[in-house]
Amino acid sequence: MLVIGVLKEPEHDTRVSLVPDIAAAFIKNKLTVLVEKGAGSRAFHSDQQYEQAGAAAAGRDELLSRADILLSINAPTDEEIAALLPGRIVLGVYQPLFHADKMKHWAGKAITTFSMDTLPRTTRAQAMDVLSSQANIAGYKAVLLAASVYPRYFPMFMTAAGSIPPAKVLILGAGVAGLQAIATARRLGAVVEVFDTRPAVKEEVMSLGAKFIEVEGAADASKAGGYAVEQSEDFQQKQKAKIAEHAAKADVIITTAQIPGKKAPVLITAEMIAAMKAGSVIIDLAAVTGGNTAYTKNNETVTEHGVTIIGNSALHTTAPADASKLYSKNIQNFMKLILDNEGQLNLNFRDDLVQGCCITHDGKIVNERVAQLVAG
Ligand code: NAD
Q: For the domain 135-318, what is the CATH code?
């Protein structure tokens, strides 16, 4: 029987890659599931719950030596990878475009690596899209965090003691996180304005009750598999002027603009922050790739000109129970593509999704973009 191993995530991550319910479904499908002791504890799943689901608790070393497929969200250490038998499968979110050298090392060990963050953004892939399930939570939490830090009300109030105007929220980037941020800010009664380089999102933004800020001349991203592309110098200048105008009026800014494999664009400059109202709040979800503001520091809160700037790309980990549940469901759906009905491995690289998120296989880097990075 094929053995699935569930690793405990490092200290900074509260999630687990497989919740007991999905472990039970795997076991029903003739798989053996080993779970590292304490792996689910910060997502509120005890070892006992895994055992009740039919899984066995194991130490990390045992898991690494016995599992045919190792599940985690964060990457195992290079030493752990080095000790794996050739042909073993690792599946997680490894950001291979930022860690090409690591992938080269892994390829040398002849293991098969699936990195879920490189899955093509197609309709069929939606049920296994971990970036979406996690970004959705991050967008929601970003607004809740902003609302609690912002020293005023979000909704409009007309009271006997006077009137309170609604907060003005500016959202940069209307991808999955941005769209959820719009919906959440609207639910809290804010007035929301949105900017994205993809004009295609305008209708979605408007249907959520927000205003779309138009800048003409964006680079065509329609052939980038659903991911954003870098913009021309001319467009960036026009965009900068528009954002400056709207940032000066905003009380809260949520930034989410990322470009896969590249540093995040700086959309909010030091001058723009100097022109903002004191007490305003910026939540930068792109902090981990450099941030969308001139002052963002990843995992830190800084205050400049009275504006609080929170750099946090891991807000989904503040909802570990739901983040783990949705991540596990994504993985269950992906596993259906690489396992047959008997629970045996069936790697079909003609399937665009299997091929799309495979980074290393058979001693080689099989992902073109990562291979290019390694070749320099
Ligand atoms: P992301 O996290 O990579 O980026 C967030 C947003 O920032 C994107 O909308 C992007 O266009 C925008 N952005 C990038 N540079 C910008 C700039 N300079 N100024 C302003 N905005 C900028 O995006 P994401 O949430 O992962 O989604 C990206 C795309 O993938 C969207 O089109 C989304 O609808 C699509 N998608 C498809 C699927 C699927 O079909 N399986 C799943 C999820 C997302």
A: 3.40.50.720
* DSSP letter string, 264-321: PP--B-HHHHHTSPTT-EEEETTGGGT-SBTT--TTEEEEETTEEEEE-S-GGGGSHH
Ligand 1: distance of its center to the CA of 218 in Å? 14
CATH number of 3-119+320-375: 3.40.50.720
Do 191 and 164 form a contact (C-beta atoms < 8 A)?
A: no
Query: Which residue has its alpha carbon closest to ligand 1 atom 2?
Result: 258
Of 152, 138, 69, 85, the C-alpha closest to 312 is 138
pTM attached to this predicted model: 0.94
Condensed to tens digits (0 to 9), the pLDDT of residues 228-279 reads 667 788 888 898 999 999 999 999 999 999 888 899 999 999 999 999 999 9
Amino acid (1-letter code) at residue 353: L
pLDDT digits 0-9 by tens, 51-61: 999 999 999 99
CB-ligand 1 contact for 174 (6 Å cutoff): yes
Closest CA to 259 of 219, 299, 203: 219
CA–CA dist 79, 122 (Å, integer): 35
Instruction: Give kind and range of the element (H or E) at residue 163.
Output: strand 162-164
Q: Judge if the beta carbon of residue 240 lies within 6 A of ligand 1.
A: no
Start and end residues for every CATH 3.40.50.720 domain found in the chain:
3-119+320-375, 135-318
Q: Which of 64, 78, 46, 59 is nearest to 5 (CA)?
A: 64
Q: Is 132 in the pocket of ligand 1 (CB under 6 A)?
A: yes
